[in-house]
Structures are given as C-alpha cells and as structure tokens.
Here is the input.
Amino acid sequence: MATTSTAPSRRDALRAQDAVALEILLMAPMRLANLVGIELGGHLLMHRGGGMRLHIPAREVKNAA
Here is the structure.
C-alpha cells in the first residue's frame, strides 16, 4: 500500500501550536503574557535525555519576589 505525504498545512501547524499551548497551561498554569512569550531554547529547554524544562525568570512574572 503506497502512502502519500504532504507538508503540514498552516491549519495543521496552528492546531499543533494550540495543543502545545493547552498542554503547557494544564501542566504549569500561567498568565497569557508568559505563555505567548515562551521562546524555544530560552524559556523551553531540551534535556539530552529527551525531556524538557520550562523556566520563566522571576523578572518576567507578575508576582516576582
């Protein structure tokens, strides 16, 4: 059986983005401003073992001590 592959559409990319945003909010509730400001390699860090770590510095959150 032959399969065809096509590049993901913009709609597919937006759905994936929404799914990731929802998962982040479920695991680490935060303000919308912090969510939209997440940068790969800056706030979202990949570990060599395959896991990821989300780090938002105190200076970027509303309730910074």
Remarks:
- Residues 10-60 form one domain.
